[in-house]
Amino acid sequence: MPRLILGDWAVTTLETGFLWLDGGSMFGSVPKPLWSRTHPADERNRIELAMRCLLLEGHGRRVLVDVGVGDKFPPKLVDIYRIEHDRHTLAGSLAAAGLAPGDITDVVLTHLHFDHAGGATRREGERLVPAFPRARYWVQARNLENARRPNPRERASYMAENFEPLAEAGVLGTWDGAGSPWPGVEIIPAHGHTRGQQLVRVSGGGAAVTFVADLIPTAAHVRIPFVMGYDVAAIETMEEKRALLARAVAEGGWICLEHDPRVALARPVADGDDFAWGETVAAPVAGVAEPA
């Protein structure tokens, strides 16, 4: 598990499993001969995507940023999205880090799409309960409103079972825009993918890492024109991406890629009027399954 020490924070990437989404949708107007070089499609034109999370430990807190899809999907959706938990699970990755769900103090959800927030709740008999029993969950107020009244394009991505049980349990908190909830942690709004998405930047000791969620889902999306067809505002995504990458280049900062199956961390470099990657850190090839 790649790990960074940033001042008072220890930052670790955690693998939670994989899903497979339509390659054309993941790359929008980019032709398949280009994106399939790095992301070959299966027989249903789906490409493999990680569901990587970030663990922050410091200042008396253990914070998870995103939680993967979880284990509540019915068989039909498991098949549609080709959900795979044979190599990695969130519980297994936490256990490998010496932690249990009860050790998590906070969960920051970048947005409430099912592949980012599905693991926030779990089934307990006939009920849905918070998956992290001692944690407070945080989402942008704008994204919660969006999830409760989704537009037709996003309706299938927002599932009430992933967030309403948190509200009912009184553990769902909201933020409104940019902020710094803890020392060295910065919340950065980014609305091009979905309204109310929030990115998380952690800094300390002269270094920084930004968890970019769906602003830059895979390493291939470092190129400014590479924008998902899923995004609600492609031009906005490109502007947000350019600003974030320019800042990271100036700082020599790391980017944590949530969905790339092979690259966990990367440092961007300028490439003419675009960007590329310099140093990269590979994702773990295999992991551990759910602990017994």
Describe the main β-sheet briefly. Answer: 7 strands, mixed
Uncertain runs: 287-292
Strand arrangement, major sheet:
1-2-5-6-7-10-11
What share of the residues lie within helices?
A: 10-25%
Return the string of H and E elements.
Answer: EEEHHEEEHHEHEEEHHEEEEHEEE
**SS strand fraction:** 25-35%
Query: What is the average per-residue confidence, as pLDDT, rounded to a whole number?
Result: 95
Envelope shape: globular
Number of helices: 8
Q: Based on the coordinates given, report the CATH architecture.
A: 4-Layer Sandwich
Computed CA radius of gyration, to the nearest angstrom: 18 Å
CATH fold-type name: Metallo-beta-lactamase, Chain A
Total E-strand runs: 17
What is the topological layout?
Elements: E1 3-6, E2 9-14, E3 18-22, H1 23-27, H2 32-35, E4 46-50, E5 53-58, E6 61-65, H3 75-80, H4 90-96, E7 106-108, H5 114-117, E8 121-124, E9 127-130, E10 136-140, H6 141-148, H7 164-168, E11 172-175, E12 185-190, E13 197-204, E14 207-211, H8 234-251, E15 254-256, E16 263-271, E17 274-282
Parallel strand pairs: 6-7, 7-10, 10-11, 14-15
Antiparallel strand pairs: 1-2, 2-5, 3-4, 5-6, 8-9, 12-13, 13-14, 15-16, 16-17
Can you give a write-up of this model?
- The strands form 4 sheets. Strands 1-2-5-6-7-10-11 form a 7-stranded mixed beta sheet. A 6-stranded mixed beta sheet has the order 12-13-14-15-16-17.
- The protein is built from 8 helices and 17 strands.
- It is an alpha+beta fold.
- It has one domain: Ribonuclease Z/Hydroxyacylglutathione hydrolase-like (Metallo-beta-lactamase, Chain A), CATH 3.60.15.10.
- The longest helix has 18 residues, at 234-251.
- The model is unreliable at 287-292 (pLDDT under 50).
- The chain starts with a strand and ends in a 10-residue tail after the last strand.
- GO terms for molecular function: hydrolase activity; metal ion binding.
- It comes from Eiseniibacteriota bacterium.
- Belongs to the metallo-beta-lactamase superfamily.
- Residues 50-253 form the Metallo-beta-lactamase domain.
